[in-house]
Amino acid sequence: MSFGKLKSARKGKEIHSFVKPESVSGFSDTMKADTSPGPLPSQSPMQINAAAPKNSHDTMVTDEQAVVQHSPLSQASEEQAPPRTQEHQSPTNPTPVKTRESTNSVNLHGCHTDLPSFLEIRESSRHGRGLYAKTALSAGEIILSIIPHVFVLSTPNLEYYCSACAAPAATAGLKRCPKCKTVRYCNSDCQNRDWAWHRRECNALQKWAASAPSSDVAIPGEPVRCLGRIMWGSQKEGLDSVWAQEIRMMHSNRNSLQPSAFGSHTHLAHSVVRYLGVSSPQELEPYGLKSAGDLVDLISRFTTNTFTLTTPALTPIGICVSPTVALANHSCDPNAALVFPRADGGSRVKEPLLSLVALRNVAPGKEIRISYVDTTLPNRLRQNELKEVYSFSCQCKLCCRTTAADPREALWCPKSCGGICPYPTEESGDRATHCVKCNAQVGDVGAVLDALRVGQEALDKASSLQSKDRVKARQLTTNITPILTSAGVTPSSHPLLALTRLHKELLIDSLSSSSPTQETLDEAVRTAARYTAGLQALLPKGHPVRAVALGELGKLLAVDEPAPTSASDYAGAEKFPPSGPPRLKLAYESFVKAHEELLIGFGKKSGGGLLGAEIREAIMRLEKELGIWTTGIRNVLEDTLVSAQRVGPPSQ
Ligand SMILES: C[S@@+](CC[C@H](N)C(=O)[O-])C[C@H]1O[C@@H](n2cnc3c(N)ncnc32)[C@H](O)[C@@H]1O
Question: Which residue stretches belong to region Disordered (predicted)?
């Protein structure tokens, strides 16, 4: 059977579904209206005494400050309940300090009744309230499944996703609200279900559009629309309802707001007032706000507790607020993640369902932590964002690590011993850097620093061009990658990893929009493989971002090759990616690994979510296809042997 026939038996290209940067649902960039959510702006720890009265009884000690000498690559298979006293080091002070942190249980005042019996909320002086396991949890266990109090789609996605259930548009398209012409729904069921929420929003959207100075600002950004839904929701549910109380009880950082966030908070407050059509502070009363100060406080609670709404493949599509899930504190080495698996493809009523999934085994008494920021970023960038947006300095074990090199900022050993060298720093007088394994010294430190500077500039520029001028953005990512790799930067390091991801997205985008050439397809596969390798050095097995990247690599490898290399080259082990059956075999292996990891990152019970189901199907298709290949090749070999025997040895 010819290669062409076998290939055409496969389902077509499956590259359309992954386009944007994936992100586990961390907390989101609520202040950047109309952009894809990323990191968030500021807030401050205001003690929410109503939410966390200090009347509690039992006291226990939590982990957190943990451990020095931690390699991000080594993940304990089970986290132990923390000892009563621990040593930790602060990033600035390498001397271990004895710390002891106690937690108190929290009176919930009838709120958070959706909390399962194996979880509890406790409060510590350092982190406020947090979620704690009462019993052992295993990796891949869905800890919580909750429909957020509110969600809104980011403006560009209003056209492509249902505003009631967040499902993507089916082939028949979505039905647009005839009045505001802004939100869209799968069908009238979704529209009817959302009407109680959309009724007031619909009028506000119409008024906003009518007074907008230009068409590109005719729809308010998602933070404004989300706050609108929160305020109307409090009215709809009743100011004394559990729903409204849970919103009020969310943590606020108003008192420690970073000065850089003042402007964006003020701007958001003005926009909300305009959106709601409020003309005096008294008119805020129906929403349970007694003054402009209360509005500022609501905005702070909103920015601190909002997180990204994503597709089952982690594409950010909006923002949402769930006060129960927002009780989870942060760690850069989290033991849980937030995802939207959409496991039950059919039921729109219970979507978007937010799942908190254990990424590793969690011992009883241990705190459940998620990450608010991208943990592939170096310490400095993570800390900046946490300070700026959430008003705290992280002291998790990754941030307090003292090992000599972080794989997020590393060069390969100049003597290729397999070890890595920490990045040289601009600041230090002695800029020399050595391999942590063989102590070889990096020669031209100046050239490395130049490459890193140029790499960061290119990343910033290409990211901003990504939606406006993809060709230019791709030129930048294409040109800068070899500069960083030839400077010795490892695939897991910043900014190379981020550039690789962006390059992969731009390539996938070009494959989706035109008939792919073999060259572009192969480049996309190589880039996806480099990206996956980079992630594997940083994220634990089963991390959703890593699982999705593996699935994406499998999908790219499984795309029909426009111009496969001839059969005689199939065995060419040097060539990556290979062509024909070896390529399919690689696709199969990537899918199998992806599936295994999706079962952790998106929950075993959900079968790894919608993506897990898709990949399971792809595995079955490929098993069939590879089976055909194996049989086909065996038949050809047998035929050749038989005919050779019939003919007899060639005469001398
Ligand atoms: C989404 S809330 C988390 C729940 C919050 N602790 C509460 O009491 O409601 C985020 C806020 O919790 C605090 N927080 C979360 N993780 C922390 C950490 N690792 N260290 C210190 N504070 C943390 C910060 O004040 C942050 O702005």
Answer: 1-107
